[in-house]
Amino acid sequence: MTDTDTLETEIETPGAGRALDGEAFWSGLMDGALILVAVFLAVVGIGYKAHQSSTGPGVATNGTIDVTLSEFVIAGNFNAPPGDVTFNITNAGEVVHDIVVTGLGKTAPINAGGTDTLVLPKLAPGTYEIFCDLPGHKASGMVTTLKVAYPGS
Ligand SMILES: [Cu+2]
Predict the structure, then answer these.
(1) Please, which residues bridge with residue 90 across strands?
(2) How far is the CA of 67 from the centre of ligand 1 (A)?
(3) Which end of the chain is more exposed for a tag (fewer CB within 10 A), N or C?
(4) How much distance in Å is there from the Cα of 136 to the middle of ligand 1?
(5) How many Å lie between the centroid of ligand 1 and the Cα of residue 17?
(6) Which class would CATH give 64-148?
(7) ∠27-29-30 over CA atoms, to 5°?
(8) Per-residue confidence (pLDDT) for residue 152, from 0 to 100
(9) Mean pLDDT value of segment 127-138
């Protein structure tokens, strides 16, 4: 009790009060600076995103392609720049499907409603055949072409 009483007395003295005001002033200045930095970063971030999405239509902005499988279609925007290409695959159909990229790789069979990811490392510019190799599926339409090209070419 005695210590607490002493502390309260010190805080209420005029000298201590001015010291606290000074600290509050600098603290407020620092808060303002932090807010300015936060606003600056937000503006830079928005500008960066806008730049990223300014690539022309039809050309993927990076090497990630969403692929949807169904009977009997392989759907997706199969354009990518040279480099690693990643397929994020969803089987939206009612039977098992898979993805084969001739000479480069394939997924395991993907059950109806299932998902899988296929990474094709370091693709050079060119065209690559993609198909489902379950019996009869390619002949029924599950085949398409991945086009790898530099943006604008
Ligand atoms: Cu299939």
Answers:
(1) 68, 115
(2) 13
(3) N
(4) 8
(5) 77
(6) mainly beta
(7) 65
(8) 81
(9) 98
Residue 122 DSSP label: E
In sequence order, the β-bridge partners of residue 148 are 80, 126
Going from N- to C-terminal start, the domains of the chain cover 2-52, 64-148
pLDDT, residue 38, reads 52
Amino acid at 27: S
Tell me how far apart the alpha carbons of residues 84 and 62 are, in angstroms, rounded to a whole number.
Answer: 9
Q: Is the pLDDT of residue 116 over 70?
A: yes
Above 80 in pLDDT, residue 31? no
Residue 133 Cα to ligand 1 middle (Å): 7
Structure tokens at 43: 């503006």
Alpha-carbon distance of 68 to 132, in angstroms, equals 12
Please give the distance, rounded to the nearest whole angstrom, from the Cα atom of residue 143 to the centre of ligand 1. 9
The DSSP-derived string for 78-95 is -EE-SEEEEEEEEE-SSS
For residue 49, how far is its CA from the centre of ligand 1 (angstroms)? 36
